[in-house]
Amino acid sequence: MVPRPDLPELRYWTEMHYRPRRLLCHLCGTTREWTAERQGNALIAATLGGPDDPFFERPLWLQTPCCNKVLWAYNGRHVDVLEAYVAARLRERAGYPAMSMLDRLPAWMKKARNRTEVLRALQRLRSRLELSAPSDRPDAAYPGRGGAGARPVRAPYFRPPY
Length: 162
Description:
By secondary structure, this protein is of the alpha+beta class. It has helices at 76-87, 107-110, 115-128, and strands at residues 2-3, 21-24, 31-34, 37-39, 42-44, 62-66, 69-73, 158-159. A hairpin with a 6-residue loop joins strand 2 and strand 3 (31-34). Helix 1 packs antiparallel against helix 3 (115-128).
C-alpha cells in the first residue's frame, strides 16, 4: 500500500488518513484504489490499528500469535520501533503523554513478564519481511482457511477535512 504518487505535498500529518491510496502487488499484478468516503461535507478517515490494513481491509502480512493475542506491524520500521521499546529496560516518556504510538500499546506488550515472548514474536515478523511467495503468507490472509474469516464491523470515524 502506497500513497498515490500524483498527489500534492502534505500540509498536515492528519491528511494521511484521507489521502487516496493504491494497493500494488508486484507478484500477481493486483491493483486497487482507495479514496476516503464522504458523508455530507465530512470525509470518513481510515481507522488505524488492528491486524488489518486500514485502507483496503485485508489482513496484514506482518502478524503472528503472541501471548494469546495477535502481534502485528505495518512494515520493517514499525517492527524496529516496537522491538526497541519492548527491549528497553527503562522507558522514559518524551513529549506529551498518550500522544505517541508507544504510549498506546496494549498492556500485555508492555509487561516485563511478556518481554521475551514479544521479542521472539517480533523476530518472527522480521523474518517474514524476507518472504514474498503466496505460500509464505499467514493463514489469516486467506479467509476460510483457518484465518480471520469475518472481520469485526468498525464504526465510521468522523473527522473534519480541515
